[in-house]
Amino acid sequence: xxxxxxxxxxxxxxxxxxxxxxxxxxxxxxxxxxxxxxxxxxxxxxxxxxxxxxxxxxxxxxxxxxxxxxxxxxxxxxxxxxxxxxxxxxxxxxxxxxxxxxxxxxxxxxxxxxxxxxxxxxxxxxxxxxxxxxxxxxxxxxxxxxxxxxxxxxxxxxxxxxxxxxxxxxxxxxxxxxxxxxxxxxxxx
Length: 189
What we know:
Elements: E1 37-38, E2 55-56, E3 58-65, H1 70-87, E4 96-97, E5 103-104, E6 112-117, H2 119-131, E7 136-140, H3 149-157, E8 166-174, H4 175-181, E9 186-187
Helix pairs in contact: 2-4
């Protein structure tokens, strides 16, 4: 987990400042893509209930191995997306508040799409995400046997990239780039 201080803050709805470059191992760092949605005035994410749907120019996607039990799919998804929120702060929206003024934590500004595929689909998607230098998080089968963050990181670090037994992958980037990474995957039922 990245422990660097967060210096990027959203300045207004649909507007972000530059972010710390993110890079996959062996690649050049790139700035995370802008998360501004493509929307007509009055239809943005802050337009309220009943507003027209927003089409974001970026995508958050999770790819899960299709042989996981349901409870593991949920657990893996939660772990994977937590990495994106921590390292790509512009994907996080403003805090929530109910009508009584009770505050709630912020959530992602855009939907998270969940896909599934065979082990080979995950391996191929992982390679494409790294080749495109897109921010990604991985969850390997070894992490089911660990009990804390330090042990999780050690389990991943102990295995070469090509040998990772992937059960889940989260990726963020331009819509078309993420779509190409997920080639061969299908929407989770």
